[in-house]
């Protein structure tokens, strides 16, 4: 029923790129029936850190909060939890920061590339000053990631939860753009920037005395080919990682992980597969040893966020009603923020290695990842290749 209605809509959801018809996203020609299930449905030492600090870019809006001394006995402390949230200047990250700040139990480090935008955003949603600090982080620069980590460590604050939420999506660009180190931008930002960030901050999570320490990496339905949404072309596919191994530079090798021709929508979906694979690899390597909870999630289709800023205007106009009335996958920023806030702090969501989703009644459940997004061997290889690219191995 929903699919029939979808097919009647104009092809406003297609991206037209000359000579790339096979990869374009469109209502038509979508293999909808095959292998689709409803989406409702360590043993490695921490790598030595190479910290080449070149810029001092962190800015704090408020004095660092004061903390009760950590208890060596491991009993619960009453202090506020500290959560680092990347991409907290808009959309899901901002809504989550707001939800956590409102509860009064969390101090949110808003790790953002645009300080003023983040400050205005925090004010616009009414976050009280004592509940957040803004620190500069540009995930499209590994130097900036190292600088951020260095600045955070210098504050002396504990780290209780890290949320890798920021992302870029470039569905309409024909040519790839690149991070400071020359990696294709979507994978460079969404995956490699977060991978380095998580690795460098991992010992802080290990050291934290907070009752439940968590590393959360936001995933998505569109990276999961066991869903209808994940079967909308271009589909995620990391292949044998040959493009990633080549550095995604687009020079002598491909800018795409699988070594194929550049496609911005696919690069984003591939990056989400990386996010979900890395979460599981963290779980396999470190959960037993550290007790840290590793989780990913699909928060629902938040069709109104800035993620779609580079999409054509007609898409931005029709996407929210399409998701609201046809797929019924729509979720407001506020609701999605509450969902991610649950993954950060809900005592019932401590299971590690889980990809959370929510049903129509907004109840959380453990969802199934696609075959590729749960491929153990691919996750291991992705981890190892990524380590080399970000200078950890
Ligand atoms: P938004 O565009 O609203 O938020 C993305 C955030 O990432 C912004 O704060 C943006 O900063 C930040 N960001 C982008 N590039 C960088 C960078 N180089 N360094 C630091 N921060 C950066 O999108 P959403 O809120 O929708 O996306 C949040 C997460 O949710 C993403 O991981 C996305 O994949 C995921 N998601 C979203 C869905 C949706 O339907 N919207 C569905 C499923 C998952 P700035 O404000 O400066 O641009
Ligand atoms: Mg989708 C149950 C059906 C469903 C859901 C939950 C989503 C979520 N989408 C669904 C179905 C469809 N979409 C169908 C049938 C089509 C073809 C008409 C379709 C198309 C479509 C496009 C062109 N959808 C999109 C796009 C995008 O550009 C968005 C994207 O892929 O961003 C990467 C997108 C999305 N659909 C979703 C969600 C959650 C997104 C965007 C966010 C993301 O994955 O991060």
From TrEMBL:
Pathway: Porphyrin-containing compound metabolism; chlorophyll biosynthesis
GO biological process: chlorophyll biosynthetic process; photosynthesis
Major location category of this protein: plastid
Pfam families: adh_short
Cited InterPro entries: NAD(P)-bd_dom_sf, Prochl_reduct, SDR_fam
Catalytic reactions of this protein: chlorophyllide a + NADP(+) = protochlorophyllide a + NADPH + H(+)
Subcellular location per the Swiss-Prot or TrEMBL entry: Plastid, Chloroplast
Molecular function terms, GO-annotated: protochlorophyllide reductase activity
One GO cellular component term noted in the UniProt record for this chain: chloroplast
Keyword entries, A-Z: Chlorophyll biosynthesis, Chloroplast, NADP, Oxidoreductase, Photosynthesis, Plastid, Transit peptide
EC number(s) recorded for this UniProt protein: 1.3.1.33
Role played: Phototransformation of protochlorophyllide (Pchlide) to chlorophyllide (Chlide).
Classification via NCBIfam families: LPOR
Family designation: Belongs to the short-chain dehydrogenases/reductases (SDR) family. POR subfamily.
Protein name (Swiss-Prot/TrEMBL): NADPH-protochlorophyllide oxidoreductase
């Amino acid at each position: 029923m929903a699919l029939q209605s979808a097919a009647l809509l104009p092809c406003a959801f297609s991206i037209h790129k000359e000579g790339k018809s096979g990869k374009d996203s469109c209502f038509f020609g979508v293999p909808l029936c095959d292998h689709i299930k409803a989406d409702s449905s360590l043993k490695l030492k921490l790598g030595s850190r190479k910290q080449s600090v070149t810029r001092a870019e962190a800015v704090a809006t408020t004095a660092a909060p004061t903390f009760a001394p950590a208890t060596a006995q491991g009993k619960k402390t009453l202090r506020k939890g500290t959560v680092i949230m990347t991409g907290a200047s808009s959309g899901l990250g901002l809504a989550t920061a707001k939800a956590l700040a409102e509860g009064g139990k969390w101090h949110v480090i808003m790790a953002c590339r645009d300080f003023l935008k983040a400050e205005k955003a925090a004010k616009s949603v009414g976050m009280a000053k004592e509940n957040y600090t803004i620190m500069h982080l540009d995930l499209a620069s590994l130097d900036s990631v190292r600088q951020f980590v260095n600045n955070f460590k210098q504050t002396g604050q504990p780290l209780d939860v890290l949320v890798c939420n920021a992302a870029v999506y470039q569905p309409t660009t024909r040519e790839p753009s690149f991070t400071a180190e020359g990696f294709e931008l979507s994978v460079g930002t969404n995956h490699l920037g977060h991978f380095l960030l998580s690795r460098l901050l991992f010992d802080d999570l290990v050291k934290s005395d907070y009752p439940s320490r968590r590393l959360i990496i936001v995933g998505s339905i569109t990276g999961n080919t066991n869903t209808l949404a994940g079967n909308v072309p271009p589909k995620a596919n990391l292949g044998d990682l040959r493009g990633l191994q080549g550095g995604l530079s687009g020079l002598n090798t491909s800018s795409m992980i699988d070594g194929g021709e550049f496609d911005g929508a696919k690069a984003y979906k591939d990056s989400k597969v990386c996010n979900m694979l890395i979460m599981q690899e963290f779980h396999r390597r470190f959960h037993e040893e550290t007790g840290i909870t590793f989780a990913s999630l699909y928060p629902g289709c938040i069709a109104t966020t800035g993620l779609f800023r580079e999409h054509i205007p007609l898409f931005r106009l029709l996407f929210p009603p399409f998701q609201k009335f046809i797929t019924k996958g729509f979720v407001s920023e506020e609701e999605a923020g509450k969902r991610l806030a649950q993954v950060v702090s809900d005592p019932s969501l401590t299971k590690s290695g889980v990809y959370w989703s929510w049903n129509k009644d907004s109840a959380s459940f453990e969802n199934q990842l696609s075959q590729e997004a749960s491929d153990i061997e691919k996750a291991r290889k992705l981890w190892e290749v990524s380590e080399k690219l970000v200078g950890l191995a």
